[in-house]
# Entry
Amino acid sequence: MSIIEVSGISKEYKISDHKGGLIGYINHIFNPKYKKFTAVNNISFKINQGEIVGYLGENGAGKSTTIKMLSGLLTPTNGIIKVNGIVPYKNRIQNNFQIGAVFGQKTQLWWDLPVFESFKLIGNLYKMTQKDYEKNLNWIVEKLELKELLNKQVRNLSLGEKMKCEIAATFLHKPKVVYLDEPTIGLDVLVKENIRNFIKEYNKEFNTTIILTTHDVKDVEELCDRIILIDKGKIIYDGNINSFRSKYSNNDFLTIFKKETISFINKIKLDGIEVAEESKNYIKIKFNQDKISIIEIIEKFKKYYTILNVETNEAKMEEILKEIYRGNIDVD
Ligand SMILES: Nc1ncnc2c1ncn2[C@@H]1O[C@H](COP(=O)(O)OP(=O)(O)O)[C@@H](O)[C@H]1O
Ligand SMILES: [Mg+2]
# Structure
């Protein structure tokens, strides 16, 4: 059952329309003119309880604007959003009880308090019972390795430590839905891994629905089965991540390790495949999984070679996204 229903939402920002330069600026003060800018353009999707969805797109694509509308911080210009039956921007308080959100560098902790005092305040704000609070906090503290941090003041934490506490604060009241807008930005590899594992385990344990925006493709590959890709405020792909990869990758590679050191390549019909590299011990083949299967390629080569081993390298998600952003791949 879908817990998030987004139907035809758009967001227009009013932006100033002055001619530039000092004169333009001064004119604008006395005679302000505005124009509309559509940051999110007629977006619809549904998300089921327990899904982790990667919400992807270039800088400025409209990700944060969408997340802000979902969490009730912004009201859509058009369309409607329902999260667990609640319209977030109409019933913000009610909605706040069922969601958690991380927005990049913004903090929901109190700078001058020790971490555990911030957590206590959050527990109170969300009216958690002592038992629930302790149980969930212990679980989180263990998984995010926060024990040593609890007595430290938030202002003294490193970026990575602070983000872990931010994540803890977000999940503390057991929200049904969590929005994570760039939660791993600027963090080192170990902290990222810790946060990813936490998200994965929390989702598994509590079936929390999670929408994640990130520039780190590894976050997406490790956490999300589904991605929604947006470009200039519009959805250009919504679906399974593996289907996406195989649909838009045109360079998968298969390396065939062989016994024979001589070449029989000229005997093999190469339609649908390309030899990217050939050496005494192996042949590296470029192919497209949509056009020819690995099995079929192996069949071709088996006739001439004793195959010792094969290795595949799937096209990298990151490469595909880059090509899409550059306009080299058309997404329909
Ligand atoms: N408050 C605002 N007023 C005017 N334009 C905005 C505002 N917030 C964001 N934008 C513009 O809307 C577009 C989408 O922004 P955003 O949702 O933050 O993108 P993303 O999170 O994908 O990088 C950008 O072009 C951005 O400059
Ligand atoms: Mg953003």
User: Anything to note?
Assistant: The chain is about 35% helix and 30% strand.
